[in-house]
């Protein structure tokens, strides 16, 4: 039925946490296929395994069972260093707590991410950082430190930082979780533009049904499983 090959695919994905006497089954057999350029939102009650699923897909934690394919590569079979390299090249992460360095400006935070990624020379780095910040609407505020920015603006710096390697896949864990309506829509505009103009594949967790509805598809989770998939277009 699929015309386009999947850029992301999970097969029988499971993750359990062993807590001595009890075992938490955070993800219990998820088969998910995402096509290149798709915008997917993930919803579900607190504790149902959304973040765990995203971390598994991003190769930040290993599954107990099952596989995660990024394009044709089963990332669960890679060595740690191979997985890190793949993540660096192909996947960007936006967290709910964006962890910007308080002593660095917006530009400094994006530059640091470039340096960590082993990006080019200092000048190219600064220019590129400014370009990315302009792109998320913070061109004028590149020199400000996080405490001189609103929460919504800080989140946009975190998005610029996630885009440093222009990853094909963007994973976002409640990117609008801390934001009011106006700021949430601004973040969504950035995501929609990334998706529509740059063909980026986006997986976004949200608790807000209106935000979720902006995606092509909404996946509903409960108790570690997908219980419903809604086409939003
Ligand atoms: N490192 C861990 N060790 C033990 N249990 C964990 C760990 N991480 C998550 N869990 C448990 O796994 C389940 C799923 O957690 P997860 O963070 O994926 O939920 P979530 O859907 O993202 O929730 P929220 O909407 O509150 O962020 C929860 O029961 C949680 O307590
Ligand atoms: Mg979570």
Provide an overview of this structure:
- By secondary structure, the protein is of the alpha/beta class.
- The chain has a single domain, classed as P-loop containing nucleotide triphosphate hydrolases (Rossmann fold, 3-Layer(aba) Sandwich).
- It contains seven helices and ten strands.
- The strands form two sheets. A six-stranded mixed β-sheet has the order 6-7-8-3-9-10, with helices on both faces. It has a four-stranded antiparallel β-sheet with strand order 2-1-4-5, with helices on one face.
- Helix 3 runs parallel beside helix 5, helix 4 packs across helix 5 and helix 5 runs parallel beside helix 6.
- The protein is globular, with a radius of gyration of 18 Å.
- The chain binds adenosine-5'-triphosphate (ATP) and magnesium ion.
Q: What is the strand and helix layout of this fold?
A:
Elements: E1 6-19, E2 22-35, E3 39-43, H1 50-57, E4 65-70, E5 73-74, H2 80-90, E6 91-94, H3 106-116, H4 122-135, H5 151-162, E7 169-173, H6 181-198, E8 201-205, H7 209-212, E9 217-222, E10 225-231
Parallel strand pairs: 3-8, 3-9, 6-7, 7-8
Antiparallel strand pairs: 1-2, 1-4, 4-5, 9-10
Helix pairs in contact: 3-4, 3-5, 4-5, 5-6
The protein binds adenosine-5'-triphosphate and magnesium ion.
CATH topology: Rossmann fold
Q: Can you count the helices? A: 7
Proportion in helices = 25-40%
How is the largest sheet built, in terms of strand order?
A: 6-7-8-3-9-10
First CA to last CA: what distance?
18 Å
In short:
This protein is an alpha/beta fold and 233 residues long.
List keywords for this structure.
binds magnesium ion, binds adenosine-5'-triphosphate, alpha/beta, four-stranded antiparallel beta sheet, 233 residues, Rossmann fold, six-stranded mixed beta sheet, 29% strand, 7 helices, 33% helix
